[in-house]
Amino acid sequence: MVMPVVVLAFAGTVKPSFRSSKRKAKNVALYKDGSKLTKSDHNAFDVDQKPGTVVNNSGIYRCINCDDEIAANKGNPLPSQNHAQHAPGKPIIWRLLVCAVQKK
Q1: Residue 27, number of CB atoms within 10 A of its CB
Q2: Which of 59, 82, 85, 87 could disulfide-link to 99, CB 3.0 to 4.6 Å?
Q3: Is residue 87 scored above 80 in pLDDT?
Q4: Does the structure show a pLDDT above 70 at 27?
Q5: Which of 53, 61, 63 is nearest to 86 (CA)?
Q6: The whole model's pTM is what?
Q7: What is the DSSP string of 14-43?
């Protein structure tokens, strides 16, 4: 089942100074027009997924231990350890952050 969320793609590289603001909060995915996003409490956003898992939803996934974000397409596997090195005891665990919805 696809969630009712619309995502605008961001092309290009974001400089770390742009991603980091004066806030002490963790970095999050960026967006420009919040009116194009819809909040959803769908359980797909609560599922922890291991590297290599084939995803059911296209979107942005975040590692809950290192906060790295990646884009993944439906039907493709999530990346493995080579995305970033983790400290011992902190495994890669991906969680859907933003779900991309395609028109049918």
Answers
A1: 15
A2: 59
A3: no
A4: no
A5: 63
A6: 0.72
A7: PPHHHH--SS-SPP----S-GGG------G
